[in-house]
Specification:
heterodimer, A: 323 residues, mainly alpha, ABC transporter involved in vitamin B12 uptake, BtuC, 13 helices, 68% helix, B: ABC transporter involved in vitamin B12 uptake, BtuC, globular
Chain lengths: 323, 375
């Protein structure tokens, strides 16, 4: 019985790791965007674009390279993930143009982006696959094992036979922390988020830095979406993001606008997510378990865990004339 | 033309320009799939305007959008983002259905108002946690209201499927509440329209909620423009610090506006549930709350502007049906068109605001130059 329960909990941890990745990648993107002073509510929509373009591209490339025989090209998921990243960046570009160049309220722009994403994904799915809500099934990456870690007994279940995107996400988080803390780019990005007028005076282009932050957030949210549809779902399904783009924003806040912190918070949400998939046979109705991550993010935002400390000019458009 | 007249003209023209821009982008998409945009738009208009049943359908679709737009606009007016209208109307509609089927033997003039009040209470209840957490704990209402949308879906689904499901429907795929009698139903508009010689189709569910929506918008406009509280709301929105310094309690103003927004949101689904279905089922229309955001933005949060803005979205919705049925273009083209109109409209309003500010500065400089004689 003990063994069984520990196995169950190991399976739970492995599932939590898988579900942490999309939230963590998007939360990392949100950190870049908001450190530069741009709130990006549109991350959910960008993730949706990532899920659709990721799955659709993987499917089309697999077909074109002889997927009919059942052996699809190993490059298909690579192409899919790349397409998801590019689609995410293009979608984020709309947000950058509307919110940074035209200085429209960032929340409004993000909300419009989310509406656009749902319509666009349905429309393109109908054009490509004749149905509105799902793509054909696809094959993802061949699983990998992480050298050293797989030999540690306690870590084996989460280090063997996993998606290569999982270690990639961890690397991106660590790199993100280093970029924001130690590099010139990171310092400048944070400067335009804290005090854009001061940064402007020092010759830093506020608009260019904010574009960079928003585009990076788009690339990462697109990647997260691509991971969801290619690796988790093995195909695109409408609504498969389930509000993870918004949950990622809560994770970013909980992580105090730092990549490593956001990753830790994402792990918490990923755990709730995994729990909501596994705890089916309890006396609590399943509908309540499925909203655990959403409930948790409300509590986190309410600061019952920690006070938030956002960048000083987060969400405020900057114009040279008005300061 | 005077400068003032020119500004007014530009303000009226701005939304039209944004709609035209949206239509242009959508034309690109329609061209890309090998259709003629002009044919598509012509069909949309013909289908929407020349059929008697279309006009009734458009007005029926417009009804919930008026309430949704107004609910969103009320929160925006107080510098708050109620993105949770979606969840609030869902809870409200379910609460109204609950009162509808749970009470028996009441006359219409008691039962129907009770059901409507239950709807408003449901919406208000769902708006309460986000605004309390915002004012007390500083939790940003955008994300909390979005999360409340997901929770609303889950809670209503649980109550519907596991608690209040119509027992006579067990064993069928229909998951819905028991149906309620005529005492909880909103009377239809058809008899009244017939008195004026306006015939609308027999099956039209167009009901008294449409005129009610217009009246509520007018009342909200009066409330915001002519009362002391309305003045406080405007003061808080324009300059919170100055408002506080003048003794206006900002927290109270924001709390009341957000709760009013939630209560109005509770009315969004009632035209459908009390005026058409007569029960709440698992396929109850979704997405009206998000459309309300678009309607509010198009109307620039002006309660009077909500009515034509909702009408435009009702028209687009009906046109989308026509386009899908007769040309086979997915109706999602219209969803895309709506989103692009919103992006275009917010950019256009922003540019307009900047232009107006510049003009005023320009005029002021002229006045100063004229008043101060050259040395």
């Amino acid at each position: 019985m003990d063994v069984l329960s520990s196995l169950l909990s190991l399976a739970l941890v492995a599932s939590a790791v898988r579900l942490t990745v999309p939230i963590a990648l998007t939360a990392l993107g949100a950190v870049y965007s908001e450190r530069g002073g741009v709130v990006n509510i549109g991350l959910e929509g960008i993730m949706v674009m990532g899920t659709f373009f990721g799955a659709a591209t993987t499917h089309l490339v697999a077909q074109a390279t002889g997927g009919a025989a059942g052996v699809s090209s190993p490059w298909a998921p690579v192409a899919g993930l790349s397409a998801a990243v590019v689609a995410g960046m293009l979608f984020a570009l709309i947000h950058a143009v509307v919110a940074v160049t035209f200085r429209v309220d960032q929340i409004i722009s993000g909300v419009a982006l989310n509406l656009l994403a749902v319509g666009l994904a349905r429309f393109l799915n109908i054009l490509l696959f004749k149905v509105s809500t799902q793509s054909p099934g696809i094959n993802g990456f061949a699983p990998v094992s992480i050298p050293v870690l797989r030999d540690v007994p306690a870590m084996a279940p989460v280090a063997t036979g996993i998606s290569p995107v999982i270690p990639l996400a961890v690397i991106l988080v660590v790199v993100g922390q280093w970029v924001l803390r130690r590099t010139v780019f990171g310092l400048r990005l944070r400067a335009v988020g804290e005090h854009p007028a001061a940064a402007d005076t020092l010759g830093i282009s506020v608009a260019r830095m904010r574009y960079a932050g928003v585009l990076i957030s788009g690339a990462l949210a697109g990647l997260a979406g691509g991971y969801l549809s290619i690796e988790q779902g093995r195909g695109y399904l409408e609504g498969m993001t389930q509000g993870r783009g918004f949950i990622a924003l809560a994770a970013m806040i909980f992580g105090n606008w730092w990549p490593v912190g956001a990753f830790g918070a994402s792990a918490l949400f990923g755990y709730f997510d995994a729990l909501s998939l596994r705890v089916v046979h309890t006396r609590i109705p399943y509908q309540f378990i499925t909203v655990l991550p959403h409930l948790a993010s409300i509590l986190v935002l309410a600061g019952f865990v920690r006070r938030a400390n956002p960048p000083a000019s987060d969400g405020i458009p900057y114009s040279k004339e008005e300061g | 033309m005077s400068a003032r007249g020119r500004l007014l003209l530009i303000q009226i023209l701005t939304p039209f320009l944004a709609i035209v821009f949206g239509a242009l982008v959508a034309s690109g998409i329609i061209l890309a799939i090998g259709q003629n945009p002009l044919d598509v738009y012509a069909l949309m208009l013909r289908f929407s305007l020349t059929r008697a049943d279309s006009v009734a359908v458009i007005l029926f679709r417009t009804t919930p959008l008026i309430f949704a737009g107004l609910a969103v606009a009320l929160s925006f007016r107080a510098n708050l983002w109620n993105i949770g209208v979606e969840g609030q109307y869902y809870v409200g509609a379910f609460a109204a259905a609950l009162v509808g089927f749970a009470l028996h033997g009441l006359p219409l003039w008691v039962h129907l108002p009770l059901a409507i009040l239950a709807g408003m209470a449901g919406g208000l209840l769902w708006a309460l946690p986000p605004i309390v957490l915002k004012l007390r704990r500083g939790a940003h209402e955008v994300i909390t209201t979005i999360m409340m949308n997901y929770i609303a879906q889950a809670v209503v689904l649980f109550l519907l499927a596991d608690v209040f499901r119509d027992p006579t429907q067990f064993g069928t795929p229909r998951v819905r509440t028991p149906e309620f009698g005529p005492s909880a139903r909103i009377p239809l508009l058809r008899p009244l329209l017939a008195m004026f010689g306006l015939g609308i189709p027999e099956h039209s569910a167009l009901n008294w909620f449409l005129p009610l929506g217009v009246v509520v918008c007018a009342a909200a406009a009066y409330w915001l423009a002519r009362t002391r509280f309305g003045f406080e709301v405007r003061a808080v929105a324009l300059n919170p610090l100055a408002a506080e310094a003048a003794g206006i309690r900002m927290g109270r103003v924001q709390l009341l506006m957000f709760l009013a927004s939630g209560a109005i949101a509770g009315l969004v689904g009632l035209s459908d549930v009390l005026g058409f279905f007569g029960y709440f089922d698992i396929d109850f229309p979704k997405g009206l709350g998000f459309l309300g955001i678009s309607v509010a933005l198009l109307a620039k949060n002006n309660p009077i502007g909500i009515v034509p803005a909702a009408l435009l979205f009702g028209l687009l919705d009906r046109g989308a049906q026509g386009v899908q049925v007769f040309i086979g273009i997915p109706r999602e083209v219209i969803t895309i068109l709506q989103a692009i109109i919103i992006l275009a409209i917010v950019v256009a309003y922003e540019l307009l605001t900047r232009y107006v500010r510049q003009q005023r500065k320009h005029e002021a400089e002229h006045v100063v130059a004229a008043a101060v004689p050259a040395p």
